[in-house]
Amino acid sequence: MNIVAISGSLRKGSHNAMLIHVLQELAPAEMKIQELNIGNLPLYNTDDEAAFPAEAKALKDAIEASDGVIIATPEYNRSFPGVLKNAIDWASRPWGKNSFAKKPALIMGVSIGKIGTAVAQSHLKEVLLYLDMRVIGQPELYLGPASGIFDEAGNLTDSAVRELLAKALAALASSAA
Question: What's the whole-model pTM score?
Fold first, then answer.
């Protein structure tokens, strides 16, 4: 099972990128999780669809070849980051060539607060549902505070979170099968 994962944060030391690395370690043997880099995408512009940028084409191809998508997002100003919206716009365009359609989506996030990604995830789910993704509703993964989940090296230290992530990966595997 081929799963792609996107972190909505480009920050060095991003907790959401750490979360994806933990998921790669926890994934069942039949599941491979590939992290996609969205930091090299140009800003979306409809004028550029005629000569689709190579970075955006690579993103679309990886999503299309996948069995499912994981998105780990922080919350910026009560929504998900612009860099993530930019990636979603590229992967869902041009009109009629939406790479996300019918894919199962596991949405999660970790923040410095207790539920910092809850509103971001709510907005993100609205967008993904519009794009015809099969968004997994349970378990909900509003993880935090990050200092209680990860050590300074980015290792997961919370066994309850480990169990929740394993349950989430099982739900994704079931939905992608």
Answer: 0.96
